[in-house]
Amino acid sequence: MAVKNIDTILILGATSGLGEAFTHYFHSQGKKVLAAGCNVDKLASLKSELKGLETFRIDVEDIANLDTNLKNVIKEFPGLDSVFVFPSIMNFFSFKDPGSSTEKDISSEVTTNLTAPILIARTVVPLLLPLNRPATLITVSSGLRYIPVPIYPVYVTTKAGIRSSLEKCLIYYEGEKSPEKGE
Ligand SMILES: NC(=O)c1ccc[n+]([C@@H]2O[C@H](COP(=O)([O-])OP(=O)(O)OC[C@H]3O[C@@H](n4cnc5c(N)ncnc54)[C@H](OP(=O)(O)O)[C@@H]3O)[C@@H](O)[C@H]2O)c1
Question: Could you report the per-residue pLDDT of 85-103, keeping only the tens digit for each?
């Protein structure tokens, strides 16, 4: 990833953690930053803190509306050249105690960590590839994918899926020009 190639960036999961840190970083570099997340209070606070920041409420678990929500952003900012995907859930539970998790917990974790990045790539890749300049799509795995940590059984599985399949698919497009892959 070359920062000089990034002019307008959409950061999904911008309201805390790495997403928030990258939002501050790219804004400090003078880039046009489109910050998206679920926490509307945090989005409002980022917008008031960072002049020129654009904010969008996008819940990536809302997969029925994800394609439309992304396309609405891209329609408003056709210069978008980069998308970073940070939303993540890391539930702590054990299969030894089924009561430590619910079906909803597991479904939400898989949807947020794996299904949503796949759907985001499906929407974004065809829009980035025709750009007449470098483009970047970053999804995030984790070193924990190598370790069968029994207290994070869904997290490590989704992160292995991102790394072993989605990111390898994205690498395929590098030969055509972009998007770049990353971890
Ligand atoms: N931090 C590390 O050391 C590390 C190491 C390896 C990999 N990673 C990966 O890096 C990425 C970011 O990690 P992090 O440490 O910054 O995680 P984090 O602090 O837990 O932040 C996760 C972000 O995802 C957002 N999010 C959760 N569900 C969402 C949804 N349905 N729609 C939109 N946003 C949603 C959260 O929003 P809220 O603000 O509402 O909570 C939060 O902004 C993750 O993919 C993680 O697996 C991190």
Answer: 999 999 999 999 999 999 9
What is the domain range of residue 19? 3-174
Q: What is the CATH number of the domain that holds 160?
A: 3.40.50.720
Mean pLDDT of the region 139-147: 91
What does the pLDDT look like over 47-98, one tens digit per residue?
999 999 999 999 999 999 999 999 999 999 999 999 999 999 999 999 999 9
**Which residue's CA lies nearest to atom 12 of ligand 1?**
86
- In a domain, residue 66? The reply is yes
Place of tokens 């399949």: 165
How many structural domains are present in the chain? 1
Domain assignment of residue 181, yes or no: no
Structural domain contains residue 182: no
Q: Where are the alpha helices (DSSP H) in 56-115?
A: 63-76, 103-110
The neighbouring-strand residues paired with 84 are 11, 138
Q: pTM value? A: 0.94
Q: Which residue among 11, 12, 18 has the greatest number of ligand 1 atoms within 8 angstroms of its CB, and so is best to mutate?
A: 18
